[in-house]
Structure formats: C-alpha cells, structure tokens
Fold this protein.
Amino acid sequence: MNKKNKFIILLIAVGLFSQRGNAQVKIGDNPTTIQSNSLLELESTNKGLLLPRLTLSATNNASPLSAHVAGMVVYNTATAGTAPNDVTPGYYYNDGSKWVRVADAANPQNIYTTNGTLNSNRVVNMENRTLDFRGTIQNFSITRGTTSDVSNAWIMIRKTNNADPSVNTALVSGSAVSGILFQSANGTSFNRNASINALSAENQTTTNGGGSLVFSTTPLGSISEMERMRIMHNGNVGIGVSSPSEVLHVFGNFRLTGAFMPNNISGTSGQILQSSGANIAPVWINYTPVRPAISGVFPGGSSTHTWCQASFYIGTYIDLPPGKWAVNATLTLNGGGSLPSASGFTWHAAWSEINTGTTYNATSDVVGNANQYVGYVCSPMQFGFINGTIILNNTSTSTKRYYLWQMASSTSGSGASCSFSVSNFARGFHTEDQIIAYPMY
C-alpha cells in the first residue's frame, strides 16, 4: 500500500471516531450487541485483554510513572523493594498514594499481606484443625482505641456441649469451659508448663451462669501440672486447696512482706492481733509479755529463834518487777522436840520494805486484808507449816525488794512457854520451804 492510500484510510478512521466521540465502543465478537451501561466492551472466546507491563520498584514509589495516579492499573513484572513496600509480579492498581497488589491465588489480599478492616462478623470453621500463631517478638495483641468501654476489648472463648459448635447446648456443672495452655519445646514435642482453666460451676441456663477459674503449674523435675490456685464462683480464693471455705483459704505456710492491715489499720510496733469473733476483723492491742513466776531468796545456814522473841528480819527476800503479784509461801516450823505437852504456838511472818531494827513496818503494797503468813504447832506434834498467799502490788516503775520478817508470836495451853524454839525457820534448810510469786493480770 502506497503512502497516499494509507493517508486516505487514516482520514476515514478519524472521521468515523469523530462522529461517534460520545458513543459506546465494542471490540471483538458481536460488535452490534453492547451492554448498555458500558463505555467500552470487549468480547471474545479466544482472546484476552493485555494490560501495560511495567517494572515497579516499590509500592510507595510511582516509578515508572511520574506521579501516583488513582485508578491506574498495570501488570508488574519485577520482584523488587523491601518489606513492607516490596513488589512481586502481578496486577497492581494505584490508589493515588501507592501501588496496591490485586489479590490472586498466589497472593491473596488478607491479614497476612495487607492491613484491613473487619466490616462484619466472621466465623472461621476450624473443624479438627489448629490455628497456630508464630513469631519471634509478639505473636498476638489486641489494641482498642477507646477508654470508655473496656468490656469490648475482650478475648472471647466459647464452648457448647455439642460436637457441632454451631449448636447451642448448655453445659452442665463441673464441665470444662475453656482455657489457656502454656507449653515449651523439649526437643521432641512440647511440655505443659502452666494453664488457666474455666469451669462451669452449675448447670448453665439463661439465668444461671456460675463459673470458677483454676490456675496450674508444673513443678521442677516433672511434666505433670498441679493445681495451685482456684477462684470459686462465690469469690473465695483457695491456694493449695480446691474447695476454699473463706475469701482467702491457704493450705501451707504463709509469708507476708509488708504490713498486715485489718480495716486498713497497720497497728504500731509491738502490738499483736486479737480476734474480735467470727466474720469481724481482728484488732491490734498492746502486747503484755508473759511474765514468769519469781522465787524468793533464802539466806541459807541455820538459826534458832524462841517463840516470844521480838520481831526481826529473817534474811529472806524477794525482788518483784512492777505489777501485781500473788506471793505464795510454804515454810516449815520445826520445834526440834522443845514443844511442851498440852501446849500450842502460833508463828507469824510478813513483808516489809525495811530490813533493819526490831520494829516491823508493813509494806503499803499489800492488797487486801491478808498481810501476814500464819502457822500453828500443837503438841504432841513437833512440826507445823506456815502456808498462805499475800498479794503485793508494785506500783513503781522499777523492781522492788521485799523483806520477810518474823513477827512476835503467842502461846496457848497450860504448858506453853517462851522457851519453845523453832530451828532454821525460812532459811531454805527444809525441802518443803518455798516462796513463789505469780504475776496477776
């Protein structure tokens, strides 16, 4: 074809397209039949549409275009760029700011390759398969963008008592609801290290939904978990016990680092807790240490005293700290065969804060009327005892010494005589002799 003919054909074609500048265009089979809503329709049974084949460098780079153009569609032939902006061979469209890969069988557009928005509820039917999340830093996270409704930031795990998870069949009491299992690789398989399990605490209905939580860990040298803690449906927490009867029920040793504060009261140094009864918080009280009993001190040695002798300090004493004391005395009266027939004698002893002279001065610390110890010996017996208790109240701030005095005594009977004597009185000579003070609270 010469140049003149080519020019004539070109003019005809331009004229035809000029006449139909606003018309629809169909290319291929059945050119007279066109879809009414199409601007351009292609129809063929053995041919396809071949888009421009370009070499893209990255999704964030418009090249080889001079700029990003929204709606531009191309076929990329290159493998280039660095994630997350890398490109691979396939169809791409431009959204005005970047190239976006068109999903295909080899590169589906989903959460694994492209961030997206969940526009409605979705169900993943796993059947008997496992959904396994793997990663080297962070495997799974949920981020919610509001602070007003934390209830909608849940991870929800549901269970029905039916092999078909789409059938809502109520669980019965004691059924395992669901749980979280933590495992670690052992080189061959995976060991159970710990778990959190939810249990149905009653038969589930539309009004009854009681449940409990069980926390378990695996001890060292074992591959079997052991229950460590349980939170019951009523809020009771058991540590080492599966049926806690109190809000906190611990089986085993309990160690507290920090203050123990019933009713938010920590108490003061040295105080102890005192029970206030069932279901009532204990209270802090001042601690009064248990004071031991105190023994009197005997002078030892030997002595002989006549019945009618004037009062004097025997040599026996007792040291009492501040407080009230019950001072019990058991002292042997040994007449040594000097007691006449048909006679009897009384013998008196008392406490003083003075240890000199022959005039007895009673201590003012005596409580009550019992201020003397008294004993009696009657013939033909030659022995008797002084036995009794005197209460002394040391109101001072320091330990006080009390001295035991023998008091002037009396005789009775036809054979009574002041010549009667008592040997080794209150000297610790006799094994029966003792003076013991007991603390009174």
Q: What stands out?
A: The chain has one helix and 26 strands.
